[in-house]
Write a structure and sequence with these properties.
The complex is a heterodimer of chains A (442) and B (358). Chain A contains 15 helices and 14 strands. With 442 residues, chain A is an alpha/beta fold. In chain A, the strands form four sheets. In chain A, strands 7-6-8-9-10-13-14 form a seven-stranded mixed sheet, with helices on both faces. A three-stranded parallel sheet of chain A has the order 3-4-5, sandwiched between helices. In chain A, strand 9, helix 10 and strand 10 form a beta-alpha-beta unit. In chain A, helix 2 crosses helix 11, helix 2 crosses helix 12 and helix 12 crosses helix 13. Chain A is globular and about 65 Å long. Chain B has a domain of 222 residues. Classes of the chains: A alpha/beta (442), B mainly alpha (358).
Chain lengths: 442, 358
């Protein structure tokens, strides 16, 4: 009888054991820099999530294989499946942060909003590259959050500037009809306030059309588009919504070269289902598409030829894969900046990495050394500015691949920055923050 | 031998009507509550509290609420997510409009708001039943989520449409907001759950619960013996929505910290419904067991391969996890269609005879 009870208790202990996260916490001063990767390789957003995750892993593998890590410190990472779901993302974050995570790339606006309040408490850098909360671009209020090279508001202003040049000058926008089709979520709504302000300034007619999650059903939206007959459409979509929208646009015969997606709405998986109808569709981006860069041949040489690639070699070079590469590179360069300041004997602490992010100065020369010249734009981050107001590229789908059709389009910093500062005050006060004085920072 | 009431004599009506008439049960439950309150805040690390225990406690409250409506009063509802959203948004509006108001009072007021909304959406239950009622409550789910997404007033005109829990203290201790520690949030959530579970237990033992069960079992017969369907059904909707509303407010304020409407979408309603079906319809204990099953098993399955040293790609692991989870649900429903609570009841009956079964 007693043995039975003991046996029962033993089984109970065995069953409860795995509830705790596996792996012991790393000791400070370890030789590895640990980066948790929140990925979504399954679920409705997997077509977007897989190339991003592969780009990340391939670039980190390249660093480890070719250089032995960042300045001799190996990059360690662990993937955690979030299915793009906020609750699962938080579970992943809580599980992995204990392994002395240096930074986290949430890859979901919902998860980013969850992690922003935790960042200063847990001392983990939140690097939401080109997504998340635009207001967090003001580093005085949000020291632990970075969203360079550019954010949604800058992107929206750059797209309007591009549309202006296509029309023959920003003043020609007057009276034009521009529609913004957006995913009805915090992510999709981000660009709206900026677009509204720009529509006042340049006097174009803005129509906001929301598409509810997940975006399979858009008939009513496109009926409105037909009735409205806009001159240009800008879209903030994600996942299956994008391909449905591109198909619908092709079906109603909308001029595809007047249809511009934001940088989450212009991947191969968004246009291929629409076939020839998608030809001419444009998308914003902050890095070039394709595999014509030295970094890609290095990845092939050091990672895929050793069969350590995360995906298939043919799938390299899609916009989202390249975004994963850029994101991994920026993370690694920030860690390198921190190592350069604090000495490179051991893995940096997350405070040091935060300093590295804030003082990141990625020059053209450095990009050249990384094999990324022309791939993405130089960037300089500062204490006040965690966004960098990076310029935007416009790419166009020709039926087979994406081609760049415009040179770097600068955002309208004079309009966006005051809005960011105002929003940062509002968002920061909600969380009970006080701004820091950047003049006192070293 | 251990679990036997022989020799326990009840000498008063009060003793006979106690929630746990048997001493062993009383001891076990008291110990359980003490352990739940004392051990995790002292022992558990942040992962355990934040990712496992806090959601567990909050889901248990929501499941309790739905169980009162579906399990006891027999009104099938798919609007749980919507009612939880009402609680969350009401709490957000209240605490941002009246920052001085105690956050616990805000939770209760938010629950009352949800109760009002629940009554409105419960009116169709007087005419329609079963699956048709489920569809009617589904309308509540979609309408409420659409409303919170559409009207910027609910989110204080935040451009992103998210609501964020502002920092609030109770007796000088930070309870919500980014600086509130996980143990504090856990204890607050557990305290609310304990109080509301006690209330629920007494509700279902009394006249109200009996009239709910009468309506559930046969509404015409119930009407004949003097149970008024209008009041009884609407009361069930009100109480259930109150519980769901409080759970929704806790969901944002004590667990997520900030949320968008997507957090309250239809999958949440199904999740809570699964909890009570697996845990046991018409059982307070079943709500807890079901919530524990739905919250703990996926986390167990995610972490288990690491513990035995098995490393596999995350996508494969997730798919295996979903398959095993689905198989487990089917297994438990086949073994005991009346839920985990019934399994526990059978165990108790066996324990009474043990070690000398007939």
């Amino acid at each position: 009888m007693r043995t039975r009870i003991l046996l029962g208790l033993a089984i109970l202990a065995l069953l409860l054991g795995p509830l705790a996260p596996a792996g012991s916490a790393q000791t400070p001063g370890s030789k590895e820099a640990f980066i948790p990767l929140l990925v979504y390789r399954t679920g409705p957003y997997a077509p977007s999530g897989i190339p991003i995750a592969n780009g990340f892993v391939d670039y980190f593998s390249l660093l480890n294989e070719r250089d032995g890590g960042i300045n001799g410190i190996k990059v360690a990472w662990e993937e955690c499946e979030t299915q793009y779901d906020t609750k699962q993302g938080v579970e992943c974050y809580e599980r992995l942060k204990g392994k002395s995570a240096l930074l986290v790339n949430p890859y979901s606006t919902g998860i980013t909003y969850q992690l922003i309040p935790k960042a200063p408490v847990d001392k983990v850098v939140v690097f939401s590259m080109g997504y998340g909360m635009s207001a967090a671009s003001d580093g005085r209020w949000f020291p632990w959050v970075f969203n360079f090279p550019t954010n949604y508001w800058s992107q929206a202003s750059a797209v309007i500037r591009y549309i202006g040049t296509q029309e023959g000058g920003l003043e020609k926008l007057k009276g034009k009809k521009i529609a913004h089709i957006f995913h009805n979520s915090p992510y999709g709504k981000e660009a709206n306030p900026t677009l509204e302000e720009l529509s006042k300034k340049y006097q174009f007619e803005l129509t906001l059309l929301a598409v509810d999650h997940p975006g399979q059903e858009q008939k009513s939206t496109w009926l409105q588009v037909r009735r409205l007959n806009p001159d240009w459409i800008f879209m903030s979509g994600w996942g299956v919504m994008n391909q449905v929208a591109v198909k619908e646009a092709a079906a109603i015969g909308f001029k595809m070269d007047h249809f511009i997606g934001n940088w989450w709405s212009a991947n191969d998986s968004d246009v291929v289902p629409a076939g020839d109808g998608a030809k001419g569709y444009k998308g914003a981006t902050f890095h070039a598409p394709g595999t014509a860069f030295k970094v890609h041949s290095e990845i092939v040489k050091h990672v895929y030829d050793k069969s350590k690639g995360a995906g298939k070699k043919e799938e390299m070079g899609t916009p989202l894969y390249n975004r994963g590469v850029v994101n991994a590179m920026l993370s690694a360069e920030a860690i390198r900046t921190a190592l350069a300041k604090y000495g490179n004997k051991q893995a940096p602490t997350s405070e040091q990495v935060r300093w590295g992010f804030e003082n990141l100065n990625l020059t053209d020369k450095r990009l050249d050394e990384l094999g990324m010249k022309g791939f993405t734009h130089p960037i300089k981050v500062s204490c006040e500015d965690h966004e960098g107001s990076g310029p935007v590229l416009i790419q166009q789908w020709d039926g087979k691949k994406w081609n760049l059709v415009a040179d770097w389009v600068p955002p309208m910093k004079d309009i966006v920055r005051p809005k960011i500062e105002a929003a940062a005050v509002e968002e920061g006060k909600k969380l009970g923050y006080t701004p820091r004085d950047c003049a006192k920072e070293k | 031998m251990i679990y036997r009431e022989a020799g326990q004599f009840k000498t008063s009506y009060a003793a006979d009507q106690a929630i746990f008439p048997i001493v062993q049960d009383r001891v076990l439950v008291t110990l359980g509550i003490l352990v739940a309150f004392l051990v995790p805040p002292l022992v558990a690390d942040e992962y355990w509290l934040q990712a496992v225990l806090i959601p567990l406690v909050i889901y248990a409250l929501a499941a309790l609420g739905l169980n009162l409506l579906t399990g006891y009063a027999g009104q099938l509802s798919l609007g749980t997510g919507g009612f939880m959203a009402v609680g969350a948004y009401a709490a957000f509006k209240l605490t941002t409009s009246f920052p001085a108001l105690n956050i616990l009072v805000v939770f209760v007021l938010a629950g009352l708001m949800a109760a009002v909304v629940g009554i409105v959406f419960g009116i169709p239950s007087l005419r329609i039943k079963g699956f048709y009622l489920a569809v009617a409550t589904l309308a509540a789910q979609f309408f409420l989520i659409w409303l919170f997404n559409k009207v910027p007033w609910f989110v204080n005109y935040a451009a992103s449409g998210t609501i964020t829990a502002p920092p609030r203290t109770v007796f000088g201790v930070m309870v919500t907001g980014p600086l509130a520690t996980a143990p504090v949030r856990y204890v607050v959530a557990l305290g609310l759950l304990a109080v509301f579970a006690l209330v629920a237990k007494n509700l279902v033992r009394g006249r109200v619960g009996r009239s709910w069960m009468a309506i559930r079992d046969r509404d015409i017969a119930a009407e004949i013996i003097g149970v008024r369907p209008l009041r009884t059904k609407l009361l069930a909707f009100a109480v259930s929505s109150f519980y769901c509303g409080v759970a929704g407010a806790e969901f944002v304020f004590l667990y997520l910290g900030s949320a968008e409407t997507l957090a309250f979408d239809i999958t949440l309603s199904f999740l809570v419904l699964f909890m009570i079906i697996i845990g046991g319809l018409g059982s307070i204990l079943g709500s807890f067991l079901g919530a524990a099953f739905i919250v703990l098993v996926p986390i167990f399955l995610t972490n288990a391969p690491h513990h035995v040293g098995l490393v596999m790609p995350v996508a494969l692991q997730k798919q295996i996890e979903l398959m095993v989870f689905g198989a487990l649900i089917i297994f438990f429903l086949i073994v005991e269609p009346h839920g985990l609570a019934r399994l526990w009841q059978i165990t108790k009956e066996k324990l009474r005879l043990w070690p000398f079964p007939h």
